[in-house]
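Good morning C.,

I know you're traveling, so I'll keep this short. The sequence:
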Amino acid sequence: MTLEQTARDTVEAVVVDDGLLLLVDAPNGWGLPSGPPELAERPQATAARVVYELTGYLVDGSSLLEADGETVEGPVAGPSTVVCRLLSDTPSAEARLGAERLRWTPFAEAIGTGLPEAVRQYLEGHTPL
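The tokens, ready to paste straight into the viewer:
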């Protein structure tokens, strides 16, 4: 993959905190925070940056998801999906989206929405009992 190809891909962030998933108001309904990487930026760094820019929350961008919902350390084909842990309880005032355009959704509810299959599988495997 060239640096030019990397810059065109989208990175989706799966921000989780205590059984809740962060969703943002998107053109096609509620979805994951997402955006393009900057030149030579790793997916984990892109996810953390995009979440902060959109929502004002600090996250760690820790693990890539494979198509089967498992986390991996190396590159993954297709759009990158990164599992992120929340590091701040309150968003920065610098966020592009206001509080009315953010929603913390219980995993069980989020699984029934139009999330990518790998994300649904991940949430199903991590749903609190």
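Safe travels,
E.
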